[in-house]
Amino acid sequence: MKTQAGIIAISALFCTLLLQGCGGAAAAGQGNTDSTSISSPGSGAAAPTLTFTGFSIVQVDGALSGKVVAFFSEDMDASSINVNTYKVVDAQGKPVPGSVLYIGVTAVFTPNQRFDAQTSYTATLTTGVRGLDGVSLAKDQSWTFTTPSPSQLTGVLTTITSTSPQANQLDVPLNAGVNVSFHQLMDPATINTSTISVTDLDSRATAVTGKVHYSGLTASFVPDGSLQPNSTYEVRVAASASSLSGVPMDSDKVWTFTTGTNPGVTAPQVVYTAPMIGDTGMSLNTTVVAQFNEAMDATSINTASFTLHYGSGVTVDGTVAYTGDAAVFTPNAPLLPDTTYTATVNTSALSAGGMALQQGYNWTFTTGGLSTSAAPTVVFTNPAPYQQSVAAGNNISIAFSEAMDPTTLTPATVLVTDASGNPVAGSVSYLGNVAFFTPSQALGPGTQYTVALTSGIKSAGGAALAPYSWSFTTQLPM
């Protein structure tokens, strides 16, 4: 296993940890974003928005260092993202010197000095930041984050939570792309065609040409053209793909899949939502989930393609996380009571192969009153209940109906056991109202596993989850 001298612990903290105060005034909490589309005077084009923000801290030789990131809803003008437009200050307003890198749809601020522990910092992107079309942010965007104490950090190597296609999957459509979901924010400089590659093993190991898109937790390899029929492809994620704090994987991740003859020209579809169509009495802390029937291009799932409105089209500010084949919209503040909301996934959402939704997908739900305090529920799991032939290398993810208290999501409350009742060792992480269980080693082949969630899991408001469990079976060796 790889180690790095001096690095003894790592922690990634994100805007969806609502206990830190996401929502409200512009600088009230980490990850406050304004997803309202506002055009520059006379431009006729929508202003770019922030999808979500985050930071990652690593302890090196007893001190904390790290990076601050902001993900945008579209490609930005790189020259407009610099130390004059992306700033970080401490609690006293003193500027933190650093450097700024823009890559993909991500702006990364790297301080020249170590962060102080248990200290609040505020990051700001000014209206000097603009999209490729010249349209600026509608207003300055600020968010506050607080660094942990070294004792709160836990050692976590970078791991992959899921892949699409899965290992050894057959009859994969010819227009499929490849998605890789990680359990923590990655350094975008290490997510590219050098670290994520696809090779046609049936054609003298010919490399597939394409582009790598990265946003949030998911990287998408989008081929330049269709894959070959009845061919076996190898996907390799190099160990040099590193987390935002510089921690790599312990080894290359390699798997294969085989295409069929289906051209796969069908547009992607939304196949499941939470809340469901017409649901009423929803908690004011509800988050919105849209599950797709195939892997999507991670950079296209954002606050521009997945929106929430009420009344005469008032936009709800929030953040969007995408992992596996599900998108999670987390409002920045509690929803209004007794209000009907409309969620929309529009045609700018693209599959990993580059196909757009044929038409936008809309659904409505209604919140309950101020006294509504519904317990959180599980709205989506991967693997699904009773799913067979699950890739042994995949991790387990659980999406909840609302923001959760991340301190209650631990290996003691997310219990995984094999068919004999033996516990599976692993770690639990949390992002975008999705919890990830990462086994310490690959699951066994052809084995049934049970996941049990206990009532010790609580929402951000303190409501306990009703115990929930399900089982799945891993695939047999090929």
Q: Can you walk through the features of this model?
A:
- The chain is an all-beta fold and 478 residues long.
- The protein has 4 domains: 7-152, Immunoglobulin-like; 160-258, Immunoglobulin-like (Sandwich); 270-366, Immunoglobulin-like; 378-473, Immunoglobulin-like.
- Helix content is 0%, strand content 37%.
- It has strands spanning 7-14, 50-60, 63-72, 86-90, 98-103, 106-111, 120-125, 141-146, 160-164, 178-182, 196-200, 206-207, 210-215, 218-223, 232-237, 253-258, 270-274, 288-292, 306-310, 314-315, 318-323, 326-331, 340-345, 361-366, 378-382, 396-400, 414-418, 426-431, 434-439, 448-453, 468-473.
- The protein has a 5-stranded antiparallel sheet, with no helix packed on it.
- The protein is globular and about 60 Å long.
- Residues 1-43 have low confidence and may be disordered.
**What is the CATH T-level topology of the largest domain?**
Immunoglobulin-like
In this structure, how is the largest beta sheet organized?
5 strands, antiparallel
Structural class by helix and strand composition: mainly beta
Radius of gyration from CA coordinates: 21 Å
Quick summary:
The chain has 478 residues and is mainly β. Helices cover 0% and strands 37% of the residues.
